[in-house]
Amino acid sequence: MRFASLKSKCFGFYCLFLISACSGIQNGNQLSESDTKRLKKIGLIERNEKIIKFYSVYKKDIAGSFFTNRRMASYWLDKDKPKKTSIHFTYYKDIMAIDTNYMRNSFTYSPYMEVTKIDSTKFKVFAGGKHRDVKLFFEEAIAKWQDSRTLK
Fold first, then answer.
1. Where exactly are the structural domains of the chain?
2. Residue 93 has what DSSP assignment?
3. What contacts 23, CB < 8 A, 6 or more positions away?
4. In CATH terms, is domain 24-150 a member of 2.40.50?
5. For residue range 103-137, what is the model confidence (pLDDT) as tens digits?
């Protein structure tokens, strides 16, 4: 019985660590210069591209999702296991569909948008935090995509 109690306490501390490690949704102008340089270096933003909203489920130098005035993107950088590194983006003009999943009944998973590109490939753009903040993140990103479609 003591082992189960210890196990549940360890799980609780682990969950607390994960929650506290999240940087939350940020406005793009809140990112540091080193964050912006890293994103440019890995090819996720270009000069004169503006990050509108950014979210990291962990440390920004390892993982993040964001949208800009031109694209949606997500990344996971694994320095120890480069084969596990994952970098995805698409320009708004190349998006066919966006589906949202708020993960309302999940304590351990972050809400996400599944972005389907015109070539049928998909990737996820995560956002976490209070429901209203996640909803706003999703709505703003989808509005940017829809606005780009009307400009064609």
1. 24-150
2. G
3. 55, 56, 59, 60
4. no
5. 876 666 789 999 999 999 999 999 999 999 999 99
Residue 6: its pLDDT value, please? 45
CB-count burial class (<10 Å; 0-12, 13-18, 19+) for 136: middle
Q: What would the pLDDT profile of 40-74 be if each residue is shown by its tens digit?
A: 999 999 999 999 999 998 899 999 999 999 999 99
What tokens were used for 14? 């682990």
Helix (H, G, I), strand (E, B) or coil at 63: strand
Residue matched to tokens 């590194």: 85
Lookup result for tokens 């489920």: 57
DSSP lists the bridge partners of residue 112 as: 101, 126
Cα distances from 118 to residues 50, 128, 147, in angstroms, run 23, 26, 17
Per the document, the length of the chain is: 152
